[in-house]
Amino acid sequence: xxxxxxxxxxxxxxxxxxxxxxxxxxxxxxxxxxxxxxxxxxxxxxxxxxxxxxxxxxxxxxxxxxxxxxxxxxxxxxxxxxxxxxxxxxxxxxxxxxxxxxxxxxxxxxxxxxxxxxxxxxxxxxxxxxxxxxxxxxxxxxxxxxxxxxxxxxxxxxxxxxxxxxxxxxxxxxxxxxxxxxxxxxxxxxxxxxxxxxxxxxxxxxxxxxxxxxxxxxxxxxxxxxxxxxxxxxxxxxxxxxxxxxxxxxxxxxxxxxxxxxxxxxxxxxxxxxxxxxxxxxxxxxxxxxxxxxxxxxxxxxxxxxxxxxxxxxxxxxx
Length: 319
Hints:
This protein is α/β, with parallel strands linked by helices and about 325 residues long. The protein has two domains: about 30-120 and about 245-310, D-Maltodextrin-Binding Protein, domain 2, CATH 3.40.190; about 125-220, D-Maltodextrin-Binding Protein, domain 2. It has helices at about 1-25, 40-55, 75-80, 100, 135-145, 160-170, 185-190, 205-210, 255-270, 275-280, 290-310, and strands at about 30-35, 60-65, 85-90, 110-120, 125-130, 150-155, 175-180, 200, 215-220, 245-250, 285-290.
């Protein structure tokens, strides 16, 4: 009986300590790791969000850019970070594909604490303004006549732009040559420099279209984008694909629920502010809110769905 009382007292002590710690959170700056370089659409919109959230939560939220590895480095950083809420990370869709293509020792569903989903991307395929491809039919016709020679770039191997383009190619029976880059800025320089024939990317390329340097051949949403009214959707072109690649914020496994709630509440309020909505609008992005519970369920279903895509494209790692 005495032992039981001592155990209960110890557990109550731990709970009280955790509760007190959560109450004082945050007492120092929070690091938000994002998956793409400075200056691109993700970086710009996340910095606005972090600025909004820092005012709400009462501490600076500092952006740490970790590009590369198909956008999965922030999620990997969570695996060694303390579960105290002071390191959080963007979780791009590519994280859910990682175990099917790479040998890793952690589980994207079980080993990340999903805080909140924020938004998704508007994507499309664009070519230089002086390209002989005046429309999508020209692009496809060239690819069919010259298998494997039409080069396109994306923001990384196994990212949504890469895999979606490969899925499009598979449906059309064409072969393209993929060239990965770390971010949209490098990708834009490559296509403008004549190193690529096309790019598959988020619509951060809009200023280059508006200045007459690029031409959009298609977009990947449910309906045409107001910014590119002449660019058809994939569905209009007879390709049954819609891609907006939702992403949000995760914390290390074991982060106390009280801290997850504080983070969720601060970022939810921050994403509702007009400054963030306007920043998203610059890149044809919209808020896509999911609560912690909904985002966790999304992670589970997406993890299963991405396995099917990876296997369909023949990109699964050998068993």
